[in-house]
Amino acid sequence: MNRRRILALAILPVLSASGAVSQPLPDVAAVKRASMAFYSALPVLDDGSAMQQVWANAPYVTYVGPQSKSVIVGWEAQKKYWNEFNKLFSQRSVSLVDDRVHVNGDLAWEIGVETGQAQMKDGTTRKVDWIVTNVYEKLGGQWLMVSHHVQPRPQ
């Protein structure tokens, strides 16, 4: 083997471990579309039907948010949570900024900052300023959310 080939074969595992090898761009774009679908569903204050389009219908999906008292596990528990949670709002606008997406096979994760505001039914307004981690799984060729975790951003 020539020296260049040996060097290339030696460097490839290091690049893969460091994340320097490029990710499949179609998958990154598809995950970003799934993310946009989630953030588009947030203002829809319904019984959870809008969320059902973006979440995997699986017993292992999880949600942890600033209003949840524990980890919510499973789609049925999620649907019940979103239905009750949505009743608190008269309007909600949330977007994701400073996001980063990483894809590894059929699993992807996204980190970023949720920003926006929520108009509560009691007339008060709350600022949305959370750090978020979203996890997606490719199921049946479609990227669906399997975990959503938000927490207040340190000030």
Strand content: 35-45%
Number of domains in the coordinates? 1
The number of helical runs is: 4
Query: Order of strands across the biggest sheet?
Result: 2-1-6-5-4-3
Broad CATH class: Alpha Beta
For the termini, the CA-CA separation is 56 Å
- Regions with pLDDT < 50 over 5+ consecutive residues? 3-21
What would you say this structure looks like, in words?
The chain has helices at 3-18, 25-41, 49-52, 75-86, and strands at residues 62-64, 72-73, 89-104, 107-120, 125-139, 142-152. By secondary structure, the chain is of the alpha+beta class. Strands 2-1-6-5-4-3 form a 6-stranded mixed β-sheet. The chain is globular and about 45 Å long. The model is unreliable at 3-21 (pLDDT under 50).
In short:
The protein is α+β, with helices and mostly antiparallel strands. The chain contains 4 helices and 6 strands.
Key features?
155 residues, alpha+beta, Nuclear Transport Factor 2, Chain: A, 4 helices, 6 strands, disordered N terminus
